[in-house]
Amino acid sequence: MNNRIAKRLLLGLGFDSNDGHVRITKGKNFRLYGGSKETHELMQEKAVKFNEQLERKNKRLDDIDTKEFYDIAKKVGLKVPKTYKKNNKGGEY
Questions:
Q1: What total number of domains does the chain contain?
Q2: Dihedral angle at the C-alpha atoms of 32, 13, 3, 5, nearest 10 degrees?
Q3: What CA–CA distance (Å, rounded) separates 4 from 70?
Q4: pLDDT tens for residues 67-92?
Q5: 68 Cα distance to chain centroid
Q6: Which of 30, 45, 76, 79 could bridge 10 with an S-S bond, Cβ 3.0-4.6 Å?
Q7: What are 82-89's contacts with CB under 8 Å, separation 24+?
Q8: Is residue 3 in a domain?
């Protein structure tokens, strides 16, 4: 029997690296893989800002619903799907 507990994570994938470096960053609530130096640094910055927003709310990633996830994502500058922006009027995604 598998006793692992499912945990939500922010996953960042960068595909623009052509310098041969393999970039991996693991942090609280996130895993970031790949990208150019600039892209990877940008992913790190946004992941840290996302975590700061969670800490301000005294919540974990597992505690928030879809609406709150996208609200925080938008606040820290992550791209939010157009369908969410268009259809979200305070209800569920």
A1: 1
A2: 80
A3: 27
A4: 999 999 999 999 888 876 555 655 54
A5: 12
A6: 30
A7: none
A8: no
CB 51 within 8 A of CB 34: no
Q: What is the pLDDT of residues 11-30, one digit of tens each?
A: 999 999 999 999 999 999 99
> What does DSSP assign to residue 60?
-
Give phi and psi for 36, each to the nearest 5: -70, 170
In the block, tokens 């990633």 appear at 61
The residue range of the domain holding 58 is: 10-87
In the prediction, which pLDDT does 41 show? 98
pLDDT at 88: 61
CA distance 30 to 19: 24
What is the tens place of the pLDDT at every residue in 29-77?
A: 999 999 999 999 999 999 999 999 999 999 999 999 999 999 999 999 9
Residue 51 in domain: yes
